[in-house]
Amino acid sequence: VRLHDSISEEGFHYLIFDLVTGGELFEDIVAREYYSEADASHCIQQILEAVLHCHQIGVVHRDLKPENLLLASKCKNAAVKLADFGLAIEVQGEQQAWFGFAGTPGYLSPEVLRKEAYGKPVDIWACGVILYILLVGYPPFWDEDQHKLYQQIKAGAYDFPSPEWDTVTPEAKNLINQMLTINPAKRITAQEALKHPWVCQRSTVASMMHRQETVECLKKFNARRKLKGAILTTMLVSRNFSVGRQTTAPASVSGMGGTTAGIVEQAKSLLNKKADVKPQTNSARNSIVTSPKGNVPSAALEPQTTVIHNPVDGIKESSDSSNTTIEDEDVKAHKQEIIKITEQLIEAVNNGDFEAYAKICDPGLTSFEPEGLGNLVEGMDFHRFYFDNLLSKNSKPIHTTILNPHVHMIGDDAACIAYIRLTQFVDNQGRPCSSQSEETRVWHRRDSRWQNVHFHCSGAPAAPLQG
Questions:
Q1: pLDDT tens digit string along 400-432?
Q2: What function does the entry list (predicted)?
C-alpha cells in the first residue's frame, strides 16, 4: 500500500495512503465461482512481487499473513496489496542479525523461533505458508499448543496428505518445498521464486481444474480467523471495562461472564451482528494510589494517583486477526519494568519524597524542562529546590495520568520511555486545574537497578509538580 504524503498539524499527524477497498484476498477467493491452481499462482506472484520490491529497498516485512493481503478494489482481477508494516525492519543488503522475536505464530520461521540471526528469508518462509493455504485451504503447521506448533515449524514437519494434495501439480509442491526450507541460506529468494516455472509459466504448468474443496476449506479457515479475532476483541474490551486499582498486573476479564465460554458466546454474537466494538477508557485501570504527606486523615483528602493508560504489553492487538503478533518475552518483561519504575518515580514526585526520588535517579541526572528555561540542567540540586520548597509542603490532591507510554529497549541495560503526562491539581484559590507535558526518560541499569539518567519535558511548566 503506497504512502503518498504526510501532513502535520498541531496535535495530529496525517498519513495519506492508497484507498484500498477490495477487502482481504482470502475473503475474495471464497466468493469466486471458479478458483484453480493457476489462480493461486497468480496470487502468489503478486505477493512475491510486493515482497521483492520491499527486499530491494532493504525492508523486511516480518508479518506476512492472510490478514495483511488486501485487494486494491472490488473489481475483477484487482491488484493484491501488502499492508501493515508495523513490524517491518530495515536491513543492509543481505544482512542477517537478531532483530527481536516478532511475527505471528503460524507464520514464524525456524530461525526466528531459534532466536538466530535472520533477514529477508523470513518473509519467504511466510510466503510458503501462505501458498500452502492458497492451494488447500489449511496451514502446513497447526497445533492448539503453541509449544508443539513451534516444534513443528523448527523441524519443518509438514507434508502433502491425500486426497487434497493428489490433484496439486508437482511444480507447486516443489515451490513450497523451496520456500519452506529450514536453512535460510538455502531458501529460495523472492526473485528466484518469481522465475519458478509454476509462477512464470502458469498457463502451461499450473492446473486449471476448479478446486471446490480448497474453497470450502478456506471458508472454514476464514471463519476460524474471524472467530479468534472476535474472541481477542472481546477479551480486550473486557479488560478495558474491568474496574480496579492495580500496577502492572493485567486486569481480570470481567463484564462478559468472566469465563472462556462467556467470551466465546460474546464473540459469536459479535460475528453474527458484525458489531463494531470500541474499547472505552477506564480511568481506574492500572493506577497507583499514594497519599500526601502529613497527618491529615486519608478520608479527608482525595488520594494522589498516577494512572497508566495503554501500558506497553508486547502484544499487537488486532480485532480482525486470527493470531496476535508476539514479542520476545524478555523484551516484554523489560518494558514492564520500565513502566513500573517510571510509575514509582512519579509517585515519589507526587508525595514530595526526595529520598525515594534520589534513589531512582542517577546523581548526575541531566534534564531539559520548561523550568530550566532551555538550559541543560545537570545534577539533583535543581530538583531538590522544588521538593524542599513546594512538593513536600503540598497537601492538596494531585492526580497524574500517564497517557500512551511507549518503551524502546536499547540493548539489555538501557531503555527510553516516552509518554504524555496529564496532571490535575487544585490551585491556591481552590480551583481545579490541569497541565499537560510530553516527557521522555532515559533509563540505565546498573547493578540490577534501573536509574533515570536523562529527562526531557516539553510543554508548559507542570505546576505544581517538578521532576
A1: 888 888 888 887 788 899 888 888 877 777 788
A2: CaM-kinase II (CAMK2) is a prominent kinase in the central nervous system.
Listed in sequence order, the residues at least 6 apart from 393 whose beta carbon sits closer than 8 Å to its beta carbon are 352
Q: Which residues contact 153 (CB under 8 A, 6 or more apart)?
A: 108, 109, 110, 113, 141
- Residues 438 and 456: their CA atoms lie apart, in Å, by 8
250-297, pLDDT tens digit by residue?
Answer: 333 333 344 444 444 444 444 443 333 333 333 333 333 333 333 333
| Residue 440 pLDDT exceeds 80 | yes
Cα–Cα distance for residue pair 428/4, rounded to 1 Å: 51
Question: Distance of CA 195 to CAs 79, 125, 205, Å?
Answer: 20, 17, 13
Among the options 28, 39, 63, 123, which is catalytic?
Answer: 63
Task: Say whether 412 is catalytic.
Answer: no
**Structural domains of the chain, ranges and CATH numbers in brackets:** 3-210 (1.10.510.10), 219-273 (no CATH), 290-459 (3.10.450.50)
- Provide the pLDDT for residue 231: 58
Element (H, E) at 441: strand 432-446
